[in-house]
Amino acid sequence: MVKAPLTTIIAIVSMAAVMRSAPRFALRDTAGFVHRQEEWSKNRAVVIFFTTTDCPLSNGYVPEMNRIRVEYAPLGVAFYAVQTDTTIPDVQVQHHAREFGFTFPVLLDPNQILVRLTGAEATPEVAVLSNAGKVLYLGRIDNRIVDFDKRRTAATESDLRNALDAVLAGKPVARQRTDVVGCAITSSF
Q1: What is the β-pairing status of strands 183-184 and 122-123?
Q2: Residue 90: which H helix or E strand, with range?
Q3: Is the bond leading into 124 cis (omega within 30 degrees of zero)?
Q4: Which conformational region is residue 119 in: left (phi greater than 0), alpha (psi within -120 to 50 degrees), or beta?
Q5: Of 158, 164, 157, which Cα lies nearest the Cα of 72?
Q6: I want to staple 43 with a disulfide (CB 3.0 to 4.6 A). Which of 69, 78, 87, 147 is the partner?
Q7: What pLDDT, in 10s, does the model give residues 172-189?
């Protein structure tokens, strides 16, 4: 064991925190625009919905995703969806984004950079990130889906909204992780 001065320890901890920040990326969306991590810095929070074209649970949540964007985007929250299945052709993802009416960018992430950054495992899973890329919440949108064959008519817990309300109020998210019922994300790495 080596004794190090406190300033060295603080520097090492600070370097570790910086190294955990979001990786630099340039991801094209289904409209052809390129998005970079740097654009997050002008927002108070970033929401990333993990979706795929063939998951009925994920597809069923698109209207709710759009409603949440309408409510929170004016408060400084950026919204993105990420196509998680890297085997689906881009043209099919573009068609899906139009057909389901996403009102925010659907990113094509062939190297699953954002899946790896957040640790997402299923669709529809959602991550709330700080504008520096730190994961503040990861989990379900709400508790409407109980199991694959069991749904509530209305959610009784709005996990994503609760997380966003906390972040926007400058408070820690009470439940930083919730379980998700959904379609597994197949890893390409």
Answers
A1: antiparallel
A2: helix 90-100
A3: yes
A4: left
A5: 164
A6: 78
A7: 999 999 999 999 998 866
**Arithmetic mean of pLDDT, 100-118:** 96
- Phi and psi torsions of 129, nearest 5°: -120, 155
Per residue, the 3-state secondary structure of 22-44, as one string, reads CCCCEEEECCCCEEEHHHHHHCC
Please tell me the distance from the alpha carbon of residue 54 to that of residue 132, in angstroms, as a whole number: 31
Query: What pLDDT is recorded for position 126?
Result: 98
How is residue 90 written in tokens? 């881009």
pLDDT at 21: 58
With 90 as the cut, is the pLDDT of residue 46 above it? yes
Mean per-residue pLDDT, 97-106: 97
pLDDT of residue 148: 72
Say if CB 78 and CB 37 are below 8 A apart.
no
Q: Which residues contact 143 (CB under 8 A, 6 or more apart)?
A: 152, 155, 156, 157, 159
**H/E element holding 16?**
helix 6-19
